[in-house]
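wait is this the right file?? whatever heres the structure
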């Protein structure tokens, strides 16, 4: 029982940290201070999971917990004779991993904010509303757009963007809103699973070199199945009606909107190209793209000289508006779990999961766990455990952690955010009614993946 508890706790927390050798694991999981570190993390993560109710930003408790845990780790390392230099080397490895991922995500967030500031997403929203599609057609259009858009933008941004469309056209039809938002959660999570840019978890797997950039696209068909199965089930529950027509015109694009979209595509190509051909880490290609955007933004600012200064394009405002709470949460989780891994909890977790249960069963259960626990620390746990698996198993766990959160509305940032903006029209229980269809899509996507890629 104790081993199962340690396994569950470690899976709930472990990030991608510098891979430690056997000699670097303290092996002190049964000590009072080791258990104390687990309890500290449980308290912090409980606060994270109740963020919606207590309104405490999720980054705050995990950052505090991470430093407390590393204080305990330093004490334990000292009792075992670990030198200060060795301890600093482990910490530096974690800083290196976090820094690369943070810079990559920061550039992506900057581009998304820049496109939003140039009205790209508002233009898309107004165009969809102006077309006066029927409820069923709109259900499929928003779902398909969310599926493909989340391959380059994060699932939260995608869900919020398309959610505004669903809420705007379905304001007099709560049933359509609930089903449309459930569809968006499933589509955004599924779309992010087949692209290294679609989710932080896929980015982690790519940067850990468990799969090459193009190998992720082997998950396209399984991801599509994961989206289409529950969508097909919900289709017949959508009212076969026409919403009220809207006379609102198209939102105008600001100068530079299309070039910024093109630069985002170029930045993705740079990240992939530098990784594939020069073996440079992806964040360097992203930073090059950031620099190009900054220079183009300088030109844009001069083109808008007739506007007030606070209305002109400023790339540092785009950086300021990045999801810093998410980036800081990422730091806290990495260092919390890095400390727990250094104590030795991941070693026993790997032995139990991948040794006793087998890779396929373990990877399916990990996906189910991500319906309750955020998929980022779950995937971090797997990468840090580094089980000896073939490519199709690494793609399997990428798929399951990416789409597992769709089973419950609280399983992903997209679901939590849409519950917040829907003002009671989309709830935990409205999502739960369709969980059997989503679970069916989950297992069918796994079967399709194994059939195609094993």
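ok assuming it is, sequence goes like this
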């Amino acid at each position: 029982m104790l081993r199962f508890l340690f396994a569950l706790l470690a899976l709930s927390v472990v990030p991608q940290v510098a891979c430690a050798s056997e000699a670097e694991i303290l092996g002190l999981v049964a000590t009072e201070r080791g258990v104390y570190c687990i309890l500290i993390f449980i308290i912090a993560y409980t606060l994270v999971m109740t963020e919606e109710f207590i309104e405490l930003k999720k980054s705050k408790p995990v950052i505090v917990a991470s430093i407390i845990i590393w204080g305990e780790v330093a004490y334990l390392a000292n009792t075992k004779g670990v030198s200060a230099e060795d301890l600093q080397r482990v910490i530096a490895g974690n800083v290196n991993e976090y820094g690369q991922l943070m810079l990559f995500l920061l550039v992506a967030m900057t581009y998304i904010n820049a496109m939003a500031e140039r009205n790209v997403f508002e233009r898309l929203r107004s165009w969809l509303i102006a077309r006066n599609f029927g409820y069923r057609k709109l259900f499929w259009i928003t779902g398909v757009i969310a599926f493909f858009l989340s391959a380059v933008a994060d699932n939260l941004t995608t869900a919020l963007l398309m959610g505004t469309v669903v809420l705007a056209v379905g304001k007099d039809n709560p049933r359509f809103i609930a089903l449309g938002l459930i569809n968006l959660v499933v589509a955004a999570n599924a779309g992010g699973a087949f692209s290294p840019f679609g989710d932080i978890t896929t980015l982690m797997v790519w940067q850990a070199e468990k799969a090459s950039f193009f190998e992720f696209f082997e998950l396209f068909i399984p991801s599509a199945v994961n989206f289409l199965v529950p969508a097909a089930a919900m289709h017949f529950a959508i009212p076969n009606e026409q919403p009220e027509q809207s006379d609102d015109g198209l939102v105008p694009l600001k100068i530079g909107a299309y070039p910024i979209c093109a630069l985002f595509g170029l930045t993705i190509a740079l990240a992939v190209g530098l990784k594939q051909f020069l073996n440079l880490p992806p964040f360097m290609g992203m930073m090059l793209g950031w620099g190009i955007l900054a220079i183009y933004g300088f030109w844009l600012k001069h083109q808008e000289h007739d506007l007030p200064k606070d209305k002109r394009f400023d790339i540092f405002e785009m950086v300021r508006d990045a999801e810093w709470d998410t980036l800081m949460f990422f730091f806290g989780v990495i260092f919390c779990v890095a400390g727990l891994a250094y104590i030795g909890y991941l070693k026993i977790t790997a032995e139990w999961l991948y040794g006793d249960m087998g890779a396929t069963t373990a990877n399916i259960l990990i996906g189910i766990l991500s319906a309750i626990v955020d998929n980022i620390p779950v995937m971090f746990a797997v990468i840090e455990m580094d089980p000896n698996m073939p490519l199709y198993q690494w793609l399997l766990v990428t798929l399951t952690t990416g789409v597992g959160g769709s089973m419950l509305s609280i399983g992903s940032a997209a679901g939590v955010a849409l519950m917040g903006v829907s003002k009671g029209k989309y709830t935990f229980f409205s999502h739960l009614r369709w969980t059997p269809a989503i679970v069916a899509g989950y297992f069918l996507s796994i079967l399709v993946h194994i059939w195609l890629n094993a």
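The chain is about 70% helix and 0% strand. so i think its the right one actually
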